Every structure is written in structure tokens, then in C-alpha cells.
């Protein structure tokens, strides 16, 4: 009888739980909506504080019962207890008056209150954080997370297309995946970011889809040959900046890029490349690097980083420990850097160490093997052969070298895990488990989201990965989000207002001027046999010849000289085409290469330019559209300019230089060898008018 009564009570309780609004899921939902406290963001121990022009912008957060937090701006009252020292407006902006002393800045929502001390003494201004358990919001957030939510913070997939179509607006299926997997971030590609209005709306929709924590919306907007945005300002790339030798220009370029990303709502840039490009045969880094010396890469890289991080956008240095001295593209294969640690510390690692010392937000790993650091061998799933462990999966590289020896405690993000260097040799789940145990925080573009999540859950359950290891990463990710303002808000700005602001910022005239200035400063003249600046009368014919991007070069030249013809060719010209060049005042040839075979004298393109040099009476001006190394195949050319990229600003700068409107001041950021291994043009070389 007692057993029946007990069973009945249990059955009744179960029914009550099922029909009651206070069942477990509802209790959890109500807990996530219950506000427990109000704090000033700048009181949080991990929060960075920046005082600019005697002002500091304070922000308030509501803390919820389940540990998550949201920014709040409406219905707050801000007050200064000593207006003689500092005032505060109702947006939380504190202004120091210049008078010595201390004031307390308070904020209240009518129920909860917080305060922070501001201090002015002589020329020093200080913000003094308050202490207490309620400010440990990151620890409290992690305590309130499920394991699924913790893993979700580490995931950063891409949604380039869906059912064969480019994703340019939020789809219900993607929105549900953001929620179901509790994603911490998403990476965007050119397919996703077509116009300023569309990009702003898509990014806002992603943030709206995230339930508790803001998303890291990430992109590769390096400048030069790597830029995903299809609207806005297209800055010259790193090697062009290296040619300028200007830290100010590098900072300005980084600042403009981040202002435009910030206006679009994109809060993390996978840039800059800090690889030292000391291998002319490198097929993947090349002009993405600032140059061939660690000093140049570090100086300009740090300035670029400061520009990026000055506008609420996280910067990411890549590809650690260094992808510059390789001859294999890790998108296609598994490269190796054979150098010992002493050499790596002097060259490859030096720019990364300086970036760490300058508080870089994140560092991206390289899918490259470094056998002198980690000689671990594994069996490739591709063909069963023994291979070295790539840096992305190496505990010795990511934890031993980066964390322990180089003292880096910021975010580590993998390069894309769908690249062949990883995907061909390791299973999708195996690669993710290895990289997490190695020390990775953000898993970029895992292969098969559901499979990877289940694999990580199983790995934690089996003890292959500790939950503490997961929490270490979540703590770093949340710290980054707090410091870059990637926080869900209770009072989101209307999308129409976001779009209006973005359209005013992205591609503005001021930004275009920074782009043009950088391009003009970068043009490097390596040879000039009294040909440039070109003097041409109106009736003189100029002929532009080339294949890839030759139309862009032609368009830029015609802005200076309308009597210009274009011959698009990828190999030697026929006799009738050569005959048409005999009355030309000058021939301008645009070469475009990205690998060793392309610049080989035997390649059709190089046969063409050497044919022009040998058989045309008019002077031949060469333009290295992308790689400055192209002149290795045609050193007898009459004049040669390197422009380091294929964006319009670089073509216009080249045209201005050819006709004397721009005095070339660029200096080679790399050494250009001759085909026999001698030095053709040394590092730092550059001619001017």
C-alpha cells in the first residue's frame, strides 16, 4: 500500500511538472530573464579602460540570475558626486574638468546602483575600479553555462552559401543553428558582404539571433589582395605598406579598415599578417607580408594593429609561428619550416612577440610543421604515411612556446580547419580534439558542425578533454568580447539607424584619401633608363599590353592619355600585332604572377614581355601588378614599377607615377634575386624623380 501511495505521489508530481508553468525549462527560462544586479562595465577586473581627451565612456550592464549579462542604456540615471572634478552626462560619458581631486560616478536603474571612482592629480587621470564578487561576471557566466554553451563559444563556422545560394540575408535555418549550437562567432566571406546596407542588416540579424552573448562577427579584411568586403575602401596591402616605410600610414590604414568594419557591425578582423616573407617562392604569403625583415614587419605590424584596435575591432596576428619561409600553400598541402628555435626567435617569432607585448587581441595558428619545435610524428589519414604534427595541433607550439615561453594569454584562433593541410591528414573530430588540447580557444571553420560538437562532448565525457580546458578558452573569449564591446544589449539600435551610419562611414571621401595616399607612397621604381616620367603629345599612341588586370591598368592610363590602346594577350604577339606597335610612343606591360612558374622566363607571359623588349623600338615600361619579383624574368626592360596589388588606387598611383604626377618614394620591402641567385635589386632599393 505504501509503495502504491509513493508511486502515486511520484506520478502526480511528474504530471504537475509537465503541466506546470514552473517546470524545469520554464524555471531556467525565468532565471535567465531575472535581473539580479547592475554594474558599471569598467569595474569588471578584465575590462580595459581608455581615457581619451579627458573623457572616458562608462557603460552599464544588467546581470541575470543564470550568470549572463547584457548592456543597458535606457532608463538609467548617471550622477557625479563632485562636479568640480568630473562631470557625467546621461550617456555615461565622464569629462574631467582639470581640477585635482576625486569624484564618484554613480549609475542607477531605479532598483540597483553601482559606482566607480575617478581621480585627477596633476596631469594624471585615473579610474579606480571597485572590488567585489558581483564584478566577477566572467566567472559567474561560466558557472551558469551548460557544457554545450561553453563549447559553442569556441565555435566559429562560416555560412557562405545555403542550398547552393550565397547567404546575403539571415535564413531561418542559420538563425536556428546559431541558437542550437550557442555559437560564439561566425566568419563572413565575400559571398556574404555585397553592399553596405545588406552587410549591416545581415550582421545585425546575426547578433539578434544570439541569445545571451554577443557574436564575434569576423572577416579577412587585410587590404591588398585579401579583402572580402565588396563595398567601401580597398586599402593597399601589407607589402605596399612595407614599401612606404611609414608607421603612420600603416596605422592610418588599420584605423580606416576598422572604422568601416565597426560601422558594419563586424567586430573582429583576421589581420594583420605578421609572417616574414623571406622566401621569394612563397605561394600564399608574398605581398600579404610587410616584407622580408622581422624589424620592418614588427614596426609596421604593430602600427597597423594599433589602428585596428582603436575602433572597437579585434585584431588578429597571423600565422603563428610563421608561414613566410615556405614554398607550399597550406590551403593545398602541408608546409614545413625546418629552422631551429634560435633562428625562429630571431626572425619568424619576433614580430609575434612584439604584437603580444603590444596587447594583440588574438593570434591565428599556422597549418605548418615546425619539426625543430615539435618532432611528434602522426599517421596521415590521407595515405598512411608518417607526418609531422602541424603547429595548429601542437601542444608544444601553442602552449609550450606561445603561452609559457612567450607569455601570451590572449585568444588563440586556428586557421580554417577545412584547409587541406589539416583536412587531408586528420579526421574532422580528431583535428578539433587535438587543437583544443593543444591550447586553441576558437575553432575556425570546423568540418561538420554537428559531428564536431558531438565529438567534443564525447571527448569531455571520456576525459580526453577536461572541462577546465574548455573553460580556460571561454574565459579568454568572454574577456575579448567585453574589451571590444561585443555584448548583447537590452536596447539595440534600430537597423535603419545602423545602416544610415554605415553608409556615411564606409567608403567616405576621407577614407578614400587615406587609400590614395598609401598607394601613392608605395609605388616603387626599380628601373628607369630615362623613360619616366613619360612625355607624350596628344597624338602620340601609347599601348597597354597584358592579360590579368590589364583592363584596370588601361583604364588608369587613359585618365592621363586618351590616345591609348589595349592589347590583351597571355603569350607572344603575332606579327600583325607587333607591326601595330611600331608607331607607338611607349608600350606599358602589366605582368601578374603569384607563383614561381608564372615568373619563369619560359612562361608565356614572360616570353611576351621579352618579345616586346627585343622587337619593339618604343620604350617598354613594366608594371609588376602583384609581385615585385616579376622583373627577375625580364631585367632588360626600360623601366619598371612595382605596385604590390590589384586595387584601383594602386593602378591610379602607377599611372600618376608614369606621367610624373606622383614622385615614387617606395623602397623595396624584399630583396629581388636574379635567376642565377645573385641580388638583382637589394632590400630598400628604390628610385625617385
Automatic annotation (TrEMBL):
Lineage, opening ranks: Bacteria, Bacillati, Bacillota, Bacilli, Bacillales
PANTHER family, per the entry: BETA-HEXOSAMINIDASE, BETA-HEXOSAMINIDASE-RELATED
Keywords, comma-separated and alphabetical: Glycosidase, Hydrolase, Signal
Natural source organism: Oceanobacillus chungangensis
Reactions catalysed according to its record: Hydrolysis of terminal non-reducing N-acetyl-D-hexosamine residues in N-acetyl-beta-D-hexosaminides
Residue ranges of domain Glycoside hydrolase family 3 N-terminal in the record: 146-480
A Pfam family this chain is assigned to: Glyco_hydro_3
Enzyme Commission number(s) of this protein: 3.2.1.52
Annotated GO MF terms: beta-N-acetylhexosaminidase activity
Span of the signal peptide: 1-24
Family as reported in the entry's similarity comment: Belongs to the glycosyl hydrolase 3 family.
Domain Glycoside hydrolase family 3 C-terminal: 523-689
GO BP: carbohydrate metabolic process; peptidoglycan turnover
Protein name: beta-N-acetylhexosaminidase
